[in-house]
Amino acid sequence: MNVEQEYTKIAGLIAGEPNTVAVTGAGISTEAGIPDFRGEKGIYRTLGENKVTSLLNISTFRKKPKEFYSFYRNYMMMPPVKPSRSHYLLAKMERKGFIKAIVTQNIDNLHQEAGRRVIAIHGNAERFVCTGCYTTADADYVRNYPETIPKCPQCGGILKPDVVLFGEPIQNHRLARDTIISAQLLIVIGSSLTVYPLAGFVEGYCSSGKKLIIINKGSTALDHAAAIKLETERSGDALDGIYKHLIEKNWEV
Ligand SMILES: [Zn+2]
Q1: How far is the CA of 127 from the centre of ligand 1 (A)?
Q2: What does DSSP say about strands 212-216 and 159-163: parallel, antiparallel, or unpaired?
Q3: Per-residue pLDDT tens for 14-52?
Q4: Which residue from 19, 112, 161, 203 has the highest number of Cβ atoms inside 10 Å of its Cβ?
Q5: Domain of 212: which CATH number?
Q6: What does pTM read for this prediction?
Q7: How far, in Å, is the centroid of ligand 1 from the Cα of 83?
Protein backbone atom coordinates (compact mmCIF):
# COMPACT_ATOMS: atom_id res chain seq x y z
CA MET A 1 0.00 0.00 0.00
CA ASN A 2 1.28 3.46 -0.78
CA VAL A 3 0.82 6.25 1.71
CA GLU A 4 -2.30 7.73 0.02
CA GLN A 5 -3.97 4.33 0.12
CA GLU A 6 -3.14 4.08 3.78
CA TYR A 7 -4.68 7.50 4.44
CA THR A 8 -7.83 6.41 2.58
CA LYS A 9 -8.01 3.21 4.55
CA ILE A 10 -7.58 4.97 7.91
CA ALA A 11 -10.12 7.64 6.93
CA GLY A 12 -12.60 4.87 6.05
CA LEU A 13 -12.13 3.22 9.43
CA ILE A 14 -12.58 6.52 11.28
CA ALA A 15 -15.65 7.44 9.26
CA GLY A 16 -17.33 4.15 10.07
CA GLU A 17 -16.73 4.31 13.81
CA PRO A 18 -18.24 6.95 16.08
CA ASN A 19 -16.27 5.77 19.10
CA THR A 20 -12.79 6.60 17.84
CA VAL A 21 -10.25 7.67 20.45
CA ALA A 22 -6.81 9.23 19.89
CA VAL A 23 -3.87 8.70 22.23
CA THR A 24 -0.98 11.12 21.88
CA GLY A 25 2.60 11.21 23.13
CA ALA A 26 5.72 13.33 22.86
CA GLY A 27 6.05 12.82 19.08
CA ILE A 28 3.11 15.12 18.40
CA SER A 29 4.74 17.97 20.33
CA THR A 30 8.27 17.71 18.95
CA GLU A 31 6.76 19.20 15.79
CA ALA A 32 5.81 22.23 17.87
CA GLY A 33 9.37 22.56 19.17
CA ILE A 34 9.05 20.75 22.51
CA PRO A 35 11.98 18.39 23.10
CA ASP A 36 11.17 14.72 23.64
CA PHE A 37 12.57 13.99 27.12
CA ARG A 38 13.07 10.37 26.16
CA GLY A 39 14.39 11.15 22.66
CA GLU A 40 18.00 11.23 21.45
CA LYS A 41 18.77 14.67 22.87
CA GLY A 42 16.31 14.41 25.73
CA ILE A 43 17.32 14.72 29.36
CA TYR A 44 16.85 10.99 29.97
CA ARG A 45 19.80 10.40 27.63
CA THR A 46 21.92 13.46 28.37
CA LEU A 47 21.61 13.42 32.18
CA GLY A 48 20.83 9.76 32.70
CA GLU A 49 17.58 8.16 33.73
CA ASN A 50 18.58 7.81 37.39
CA LYS A 51 19.28 11.48 37.84
CA VAL A 52 16.03 12.51 36.20
CA THR A 53 13.89 10.05 38.11
CA SER A 54 15.45 11.04 41.44
CA LEU A 55 15.14 14.80 40.86
CA LEU A 56 11.70 14.85 39.26
CA ASN A 57 10.47 12.95 42.24
CA ILE A 58 7.75 13.78 44.74
CA SER A 59 10.08 13.05 47.66
CA THR A 60 12.76 15.42 46.31
CA PHE A 61 10.06 18.05 45.85
CA ARG A 62 8.97 17.62 49.48
CA LYS A 63 12.38 17.27 51.12
CA LYS A 64 14.61 19.42 48.91
CA PRO A 65 12.36 21.89 47.12
CA LYS A 66 15.26 24.16 46.21
CA GLU A 67 17.14 21.35 44.48
CA PHE A 68 13.93 20.28 42.81
CA TYR A 69 13.15 23.77 41.51
CA SER A 70 16.70 24.50 40.32
CA PHE A 71 16.44 21.44 38.13
CA TYR A 72 12.83 22.01 37.15
CA ARG A 73 13.41 25.61 36.11
CA ASN A 74 16.45 24.62 34.03
CA TYR A 75 15.09 21.62 32.21
CA MET A 76 11.32 21.55 32.43
CA MET A 77 10.19 25.15 32.04
CA MET A 78 10.30 25.76 28.32
CA PRO A 79 9.61 29.07 26.63
CA PRO A 80 6.01 29.02 25.40
CA VAL A 81 5.42 27.48 21.95
CA LYS A 82 2.40 27.27 19.66
CA PRO A 83 0.50 24.05 18.92
CA SER A 84 1.63 22.06 15.87
CA ARG A 85 -0.42 21.22 12.78
CA SER A 86 -1.18 17.87 14.40
CA HIS A 87 -2.74 19.54 17.44
CA TYR A 88 -4.96 21.72 15.23
CA LEU A 89 -5.94 18.82 12.96
CA LEU A 90 -6.89 16.61 15.89
CA ALA A 91 -8.87 19.47 17.40
CA LYS A 92 -10.72 19.87 14.09
CA MET A 93 -11.39 16.15 13.83
CA GLU A 94 -12.80 16.10 17.31
CA ARG A 95 -14.95 19.18 16.70
CA LYS A 96 -16.43 17.54 13.61
CA GLY A 97 -17.19 14.35 15.47
CA PHE A 98 -14.60 12.09 13.83
CA ILE A 99 -12.80 11.64 17.13
CA LYS A 100 -14.64 11.19 20.39
CA ALA A 101 -11.83 11.83 22.86
CA ILE A 102 -8.11 12.54 23.11
CA VAL A 103 -5.99 11.00 25.85
CA THR A 104 -2.51 12.47 26.17
CA GLN A 105 0.71 11.78 28.00
CA ASN A 106 1.94 15.27 27.21
CA ILE A 107 2.07 18.02 29.81
CA ASP A 108 2.56 20.93 27.41
CA ASN A 109 -1.04 22.19 27.24
CA LEU A 110 -0.92 22.30 23.42
CA HIS A 111 -4.07 20.26 22.79
CA GLN A 112 -5.93 22.62 25.08
CA GLU A 113 -4.43 25.62 23.34
CA ALA A 114 -5.47 24.21 19.95
CA GLY A 115 -8.99 24.38 21.29
CA ARG A 116 -9.82 21.01 22.77
CA ARG A 117 -10.25 19.48 26.13
CA VAL A 118 -8.16 16.40 26.61
CA ILE A 119 -7.77 13.68 29.19
CA ALA A 120 -4.25 14.51 30.39
CA ILE A 121 -2.76 11.73 32.49
CA HIS A 122 0.58 13.32 33.33
CA GLY A 123 -0.82 16.71 34.28
CA ASN A 124 -0.28 20.17 32.83
CA ALA A 125 3.03 22.06 33.11
CA GLU A 126 1.32 25.39 32.53
CA ARG A 127 -0.41 25.10 35.88
CA PHE A 128 0.98 25.19 39.44
CA VAL A 129 -0.97 24.30 42.54
CA CYS A 130 -0.40 25.50 46.11
CA THR A 131 0.48 22.67 48.47
CA GLY A 132 -1.24 24.58 51.28
CA CYS A 133 -4.52 25.98 49.96
CA TYR A 134 -4.79 24.55 46.40
CA THR A 135 -4.85 27.96 44.77
CA THR A 136 -3.54 27.67 41.21
CA ALA A 137 -1.03 29.88 39.42
CA ASP A 138 0.18 29.83 35.82
CA ALA A 139 3.67 29.17 34.50
CA ASP A 140 4.29 32.87 33.86
CA TYR A 141 3.76 33.62 37.54
CA VAL A 142 6.42 31.03 38.37
CA ARG A 143 8.77 32.16 35.58
CA ASN A 144 8.64 35.71 36.93
CA TYR A 145 8.79 34.79 40.61
CA PRO A 146 11.88 36.44 42.17
CA GLU A 147 13.03 33.33 44.09
CA THR A 148 13.88 29.78 43.04
CA ILE A 149 11.00 28.26 45.02
CA PRO A 150 7.71 29.86 43.92
CA LYS A 151 5.24 30.66 46.69
CA CYS A 152 1.47 30.91 46.64
CA PRO A 153 0.07 34.41 46.04
CA GLN A 154 -2.66 33.72 48.62
CA CYS A 155 -1.06 31.92 51.56
CA GLY A 156 2.69 31.80 50.90
CA GLY A 157 2.74 27.97 50.63
CA ILE A 158 5.06 26.27 48.13
CA LEU A 159 3.63 25.84 44.64
CA LYS A 160 3.92 22.45 42.99
CA PRO A 161 3.89 21.97 39.23
CA ASP A 162 0.61 20.25 38.36
CA VAL A 163 2.53 17.48 36.64
CA VAL A 164 2.84 13.88 37.71
CA LEU A 165 6.22 13.40 39.35
CA PHE A 166 7.94 10.08 39.88
CA GLY A 167 6.39 8.49 42.93
CA GLU A 168 2.96 9.96 42.19
CA PRO A 169 -0.03 8.23 40.59
CA ILE A 170 -1.16 9.38 37.15
CA GLN A 171 -4.12 11.76 36.89
CA ASN A 172 -7.50 10.75 35.46
CA HIS A 173 -6.48 7.10 35.73
CA ARG A 174 -9.96 5.63 35.59
CA LEU A 175 -11.30 7.98 32.93
CA ALA A 176 -8.29 7.41 30.67
CA ARG A 177 -8.44 3.65 31.10
CA ASP A 178 -12.20 3.43 30.52
CA THR A 179 -12.05 5.76 27.50
CA ILE A 180 -9.29 3.70 25.86
CA ILE A 181 -10.62 0.27 26.69
CA SER A 182 -14.17 1.06 25.59
CA ALA A 183 -13.08 2.71 22.31
CA GLN A 184 -14.04 0.87 19.12
CA LEU A 185 -11.13 2.32 17.16
CA LEU A 186 -7.89 3.55 18.68
CA ILE A 187 -5.30 5.77 16.98
CA VAL A 188 -1.97 6.23 18.72
CA ILE A 189 0.07 9.22 17.55
CA GLY A 190 3.66 9.99 18.52
CA SER A 191 4.10 7.50 21.34
CA SER A 192 6.37 4.49 21.46
CA LEU A 193 3.95 2.93 23.99
CA THR A 194 6.60 2.03 26.51
CA VAL A 195 5.36 4.12 29.45
CA TYR A 196 2.96 2.46 31.86
CA PRO A 197 0.15 2.45 32.81
CA LEU A 198 -0.89 3.99 29.47
CA ALA A 199 0.75 1.22 27.44
CA GLY A 200 -1.20 -1.24 29.56
CA PHE A 201 -4.50 0.48 28.70
CA VAL A 202 -3.67 0.14 24.99
CA GLU A 203 -2.76 -3.53 25.48
CA GLY A 204 -6.10 -3.98 27.24
CA TYR A 205 -7.89 -2.38 24.29
CA CYS A 206 -6.05 -4.66 21.84
CA SER A 207 -6.75 -7.84 23.76
CA SER A 208 -10.35 -7.87 22.52
CA GLY A 209 -9.23 -7.87 18.88
CA LYS A 210 -10.26 -4.29 18.00
CA LYS A 211 -8.27 -2.38 15.38
CA LEU A 212 -5.26 -0.35 16.48
CA ILE A 213 -3.72 2.33 14.24
CA ILE A 214 -0.25 3.65 15.08
CA ILE A 215 1.26 6.80 13.57
CA ASN A 216 4.81 7.23 14.83
CA LYS A 217 8.42 7.83 13.96
CA GLY A 218 10.23 4.64 14.84
CA SER A 219 8.99 1.37 16.19
CA THR A 220 6.66 1.02 19.15
CA ALA A 221 6.09 -1.72 21.70
CA LEU A 222 2.76 -2.61 20.07
CA ASP A 223 3.60 -2.58 16.36
CA HIS A 224 2.86 -6.28 16.25
CA ALA A 225 -0.72 -5.63 17.39
CA ALA A 226 -1.44 -2.77 14.96
CA ALA A 227 -3.81 -3.21 12.02
CA ILE A 228 -2.07 -0.24 10.38
CA LYS A 229 1.29 1.22 11.32
CA LEU A 230 2.23 4.48 9.63
CA GLU A 231 5.90 5.29 9.89
CA THR A 232 6.34 9.04 9.53
CA GLU A 233 8.70 11.84 10.50
CA ARG A 234 5.77 14.23 10.77
CA SER A 235 2.44 13.15 12.14
CA GLY A 236 1.03 16.47 10.84
CA ASP A 237 1.44 15.22 7.24
CA ALA A 238 -0.33 11.96 8.04
CA LEU A 239 -3.21 13.66 9.88
CA ASP A 240 -3.53 16.18 7.07
CA GLY A 241 -3.75 13.37 4.51
CA ILE A 242 -6.33 11.49 6.57
CA TYR A 243 -8.39 14.62 7.23
CA LYS A 244 -8.52 15.51 3.50
CA HIS A 245 -9.92 12.08 2.71
CA LEU A 246 -12.54 12.44 5.43
CA ILE A 247 -13.66 15.81 4.08
CA GLU A 248 -13.49 14.91 0.37
CA LYS A 249 -15.64 11.86 0.83
CA ASN A 250 -18.12 13.86 2.86
CA TRP A 251 -17.70 11.44 5.67
CA GLU A 252 -18.70 14.04 8.18
CA VAL A 253 -20.74 12.53 10.96
ZN1 LIG B 1 -1.79 28.81 49.04
Answers
A1: 14
A2: unpaired
A3: 999 999 999 999 999 988 888 777 777 778 888 888 999
A4: 161
A5: 3.40.50.1220
A6: 0.92
A7: 31
